[in-house]
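Q: Please design a sequence for this.
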């Protein structure tokens, strides 16, 4: 799997250019880091890639995922996983139900629960299976959120400041675990951050300036 962004330009509602003729290639298992100050438009780019761009913005260019054009594909059919700084677990579902919800539709019945419980055992969090999100720690929610994303078997992962709300001790441990899981699954990944400590070793880094970036 690989992901290509080709000559993408995004224009803001007021006519200003947010992104100009931007191109990027992400290989399978590669984590590319997009850095820049808060409010510069990094999250807007992720929304465009995921298919959720505000219609007031105008975007031109081409997106290719695993050799298939997805520029005009609806968001729910792109098979892109997004991990935000907020975990976004469903509060009315137990931990195992949250994981089972992410599984592909071809997995049916009791097999969904079995796979969810197996994933929790691998995380060494089996005792949390019947707990609700508000009953577990922030670090546990973060690990379960990423596991839920991976269980959906996305072809591309977008990380939007996923470590920013974790304390420093947990942040380093969770960051390394996230990168390991992504690389083992061989999924191309784009991460936006403003913190240099979040950058994986040997990662390609795109520095987003205040002015529209080119690549």
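A: Design:
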């Amino acid at each position: 799997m690989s992901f290509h962004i080709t000559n993408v330009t995004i224009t803001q509602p007021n006519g200003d250019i947010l992104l100009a003729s931007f191109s990027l290639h992400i290989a399978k298992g590669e984590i590319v880091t997009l850095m820049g100050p808060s409010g510069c438009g990094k999250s807007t780019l992720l929304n465009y890639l995921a298919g959720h761009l505000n219609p007031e913005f105008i975007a031109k260019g081409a997106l290719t995922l695993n050799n298939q054009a997805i520029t005009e594909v609806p968001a729910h059919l792109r098979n892109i996983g997004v991990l935000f700084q907020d975990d976004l677990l469903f509060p009315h579902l137990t931990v195992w139900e949250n994981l089972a919800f992410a599984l592909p539709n071809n997995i049916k019945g009791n097999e969904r629960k079995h796979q969810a419980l197996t994933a929790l055992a691998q995380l060494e969090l089996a005792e949390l299976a019947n707990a609700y999100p508000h009953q577990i720690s922030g670090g546990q929610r973060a690990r379960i959120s990423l596991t839920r994303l991976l269980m959906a078997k996305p072809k591309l992962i977008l990380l939007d400041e996923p470590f920013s709300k974790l304390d420093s001790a947990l942040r380093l441990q969770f960051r390394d675990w996230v990168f390991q899981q992504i690389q083992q699954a061989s999924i191309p990944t784009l991460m936006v951050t403003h913190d240099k400590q979040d950058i994986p070793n040997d990662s390609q880094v795109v520095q987003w300036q205040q002015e529209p970036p080119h690549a």
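Q: Thanks. Anything notable?
A: Residues 168-185 form the longest helix (18 residues). Helices lie at 42-50, 95-102, 109-122, 138-151, 168-185.
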